Amino acid sequence: MRNVFRNTVYFIFISCGVLAAQSSTQLLSSQTEVKIDSIIKLMTLEEKLGQLNQIGGTWYDTKTERLNEEQTAMLKAGEIGSFLGITGAAETGRIQRIAVEQSRMKIPVLFGYDIIHGYSTITPIPLAEACSWNPDLVEQSAHVAAIEGSAIGVHWTYAPMVDIARDPRWGRIAEGSGEDPYLGSVMAAARVRGFQGKNILEYGSLLACVKHFAAYGGAEAGRDYNTVDFSERTLREIYLPPYKAAIDAGAWTVMSAFNEIGGVPSSASSWLMTDLLRDEWNFKGLVVSDYTAIMELMNHRIAKDSTEAGIVGLSSGVEIDMVSRIYLRKLSEAVRSKKLSQEIVDEAVRRVLRVKFVYGLFDDPYRNAKPEKEKELLLKKEHRVVAREMAQHSIVLLKNEKDILPLKKSTKTIALIGPLAGNENRSDLVGAWAWARNPNDVVSVIQGIKAKVSSSIKIVYDKGCEIESDSGARIKQAVKIAKQADVIVAVLGESQHVSGEAASKSNLDLPSTQKELLKALKKTGKPIVLVLMNGRPLTLEWESENIPAIVEAWHLGVEAGNAIADVLFGDVNPSGKLTVSFPRNVGQIPVYYNHKSTGRPYNPKDKYTSQFLDVPNSPLYPFGFGLSYTTFSYSNVTVSSAAIKKGQSVTILVDVENSGNRAGEEVVQLYLRDDFATVTRPVKELKGFKKISLNPGEKKTVEFTITQDQLAFYNLEMKKVVEPGTFTVYVGGNSVDCKEAVFEVVD
Ligand code: GLC
Question: What's residue 399's pLDDT?
């Protein structure tokens, strides 16, 4: 029996080999489905539940990447379908061999890992990359991450994170693309293309994982893991589009979110995971829960015990249980006692096996188990080139009075001051969800500047204070150093530890000692450039009033120092634009550009309108804002037709001129307002953007085509419709300073 069985299983794999040469979508052919069904027929219930079980390697327990005896026994018993957090081509190869050669069903395992913005070649945090408004570059950056993830034996990255975030108190705002659904959708699709490549079967591609489904960024008060409660209309118009865009771009996996939405935890929501994801969006891949999210259904108090949690999680459409081990341990009894149907288990296994087929693991389980690739690919020169270009384009110039910037190479002495300027805190320059394998891989600001300027410029340096607040004892020394210089470059901001997951903050000022240091530097009367390294919008009212030049540099990754030096000395003209509004203070939050009118639209001259007594409604720096070392002027906004019929598109033209004296790139942004509708509509919505290069004096006509689906919204019946009426067009270099035009949709 055993031999016959073994031959049967081998037959399946050999015949699968024939499939491998085909593309992943072809693999979704009926042949694959037949193969999957024949495998499922051979599996025991425990082996099926094993495919739905994902465990972290002992790395999570002992910081080593080997399996302990218990885990090895589970693997051989077919009780593990995938691993989280195990890396190393040799180690993953060793584990895969046990799965494929020593288990009864010989089903390959998947190795998942959080490769969010690079592995060894760490690129800027996703929020920074989004500020480039350059999806091609973002795709390249994601592909570098996929190549390096493949080199360390990983199959599946838990990225892109595409959660819309309007609240900078939430530390995970660093991991997404900011507050706008259109830009977020463009970046989500770019990252999926980058991770999965043109053909996912090719080496250097990883399975993407769209997360966190859904609306995790809407946590009340920006407090991580907190309650989310939006109308379906807000969900569909603001929070869901980037997930849809990622799935339409071909993402094969989705991760369910920790949070509830309106009373239903996402990881138990059949509306999200089945009605919307499968039935409406036709998603064919698998859903993995977030870390212990299945167990947490008991904390949400919608499950009395772990069996109930497992039943409601799996039944809703969450196929893989990340590290709770509930599916494995509790659901065989649930099936036997008829509390859970066998069909639900089989369908879940089918989805998991389908993804393993798509990734080619049945043909080549060892596709990424190539230890020689680690040496060849990790931190290779070409990857650093991508990281540096990505970092250059992620930088946003917020202020530049009296053209302090770019710094002149004729400057005699530059004082570099601050806890993020030197070589000491380089691991903080890579930001959240990145562990600089070796801080020496990260180029610091002082290294970048020294590499840039000739020895004719004297660089004096002092840390000034710690990143988090300290006694301030070192400030005097730093000021003394600064007084020697012609210009001060202060590099301040956040450590990587106060950004990302479980890093919500109620105070968004610079840490107090850093602020004290900056005020002391200001008192020297020297010209000051403030370079910020942070993973979220900060509250910068004092800085914006008192510091003449401010550069938002985010956490830029291994090439941070070089990219910052490129911009500070003008070898690169900054072109980044904010994809999230900067509030004036925390009390203003949430503040975002695509807000509603309200019945009493803001009028600073009439207190009986929607406003605060102590702060204007406008953010300190608005969505889409970013300066350049040159200037751009907009004129001649025209629409192809003053009136269009339903179904027709309209073309909008605008002339953009470089009215300054040096070449630069400009992100031309197109917003629309549906002037009147049967439900309230935002005061404006981003519907298109184009990044163009212009030499001094050069003028280009930029064209946008708006199609009907970009005019559509969810009406009172929650149907997506276009209603007749006028639309106001806004075109400009940010969401505030725009030229206007109008067109009408007529019945
Ligand atoms: C974490 C995060 C998720 C990550 C997962 C695996 O809790 O919420 O983004 O992918 O666990 O590390």
Answer: 98
**For the chain, which residues score pLDDT lower than 50?**
1-23, 60-63
Lay out the sheet containing 632-639: strands in order across: 632-639, 650-658, 699-706
Query: For atom 3 of ligand 1, which residue has the closest CA?
Result: 290
CB of 163 sitting under 6 A from ligand 1: no
Q: Which residue lies with its CA nearest to atom 12 of ligand 1?
A: 114
Rounded alpha-carbon distances, angstroms, from residue 515 to 339, 489, 650: 59, 14, 50
Going by DSSP bridges, is the β-strand pair 685-694/738-746 parallel, antiparallel, or unpaired?
Answer: unpaired
Query: Can you give the pTM of this predicted structure?
Result: 0.96
The pLDDT of residue 11 is 46
**Residue with token string 């800085």:** 543
Where a domain ends, among 588, 609, 644? 588
Which residue from 283, 285, 264, 174 is spatially nearest to 214, judged by alpha carbons? 264
Pairing of β 156-157 and β 110-113:
parallel
Cβ–ligand 1 contact at 113 (below 6 Å): no
Q: Write out pLDDT tens, residues 705-746.
A: 999 999 999 999 999 999 999 999 999 999 999 999 999 999
CB 404 within 8 A of CB 411: no
| Strand-pair partners of 638 | 653
Buried b (16+ CB within 10 A) or exposed e, 279-300: eeeebebbbbbbbbbbbbbbeb
* Whether residue 349 is found in the same domain as residue 417: no
Where are the alpha helices (H) located in 359-487, listed in sequence order?
371-377, 381-394, 445-452, 475-482
Ligand 1 centroid–CA 593 distance in Å is: 29
What torsion do the CA atoms of 77, 83, 85, 87 make, to the nearest 10 degrees? 80
Instruction: Give me the pLDDT at residue 69, please.
Output: 87
Q: Which atom of ligand 1 is nearest to the CA of 209?
A: 10
Verify whether ligand 1 is closer than 6 Å to residue 211 (CB atom). yes
Rounded distance, CA 89 to CA 86, Å?
10
List, for residues 605-632, the tens digit of each pLDDT value.
Answer: 999 999 999 999 999 999 999 999 999 9
Residue 666: CATH number of its domain: 2.60.40.10
Say yes or no: CB of residue 216 within 6 Å of ligand 1.
no
For 424-433, how does the pLDDT look when each residue is reduced to its tens digit (9 = 90+)?
A: 999 999 999 9
Q: Whose CA is nearest to atom 6 of ligand 1?
A: 291
Q: What is the pLDDT of residue 307?
A: 98
Calculate how far, in angstroms, residue 291's C-alpha sits from the geometric centre of ligand 1: 6
* H helices present in 473-550, as ranges: 475-482, 512-522, 541-546
Q: Which pLDDT belongs to residue 735?
A: 98
CA atoms within 13 A on the CB side of 24: 23
Ligand 1 centroid to Cα of residue 386, in Å, is 26
* Structural domain total, the chain: 3
Same domain for 661 and 512?
Answer: no
Tell me whether residue 566 is one of the annotated catalytic residues.
no
Of 83, 110, 255, 433, which is best to mutate to test ligand 1, by the most ligand atoms within 8 angstroms of its C-beta? 255
Ligand 1 lined by 296 (C-beta under 6 Å)? no
Task: Find the domain containing 244 and state its range.
Answer: 2-374
For 20, counting Cβ atoms within 10 Å of its Cβ (0-12 exposed, 13-18 middle, 19+ buried), the class is middle
In a domain, 612, yes or no: no
| Ligand 1 touching residue 114 (CB < 6 A) | yes
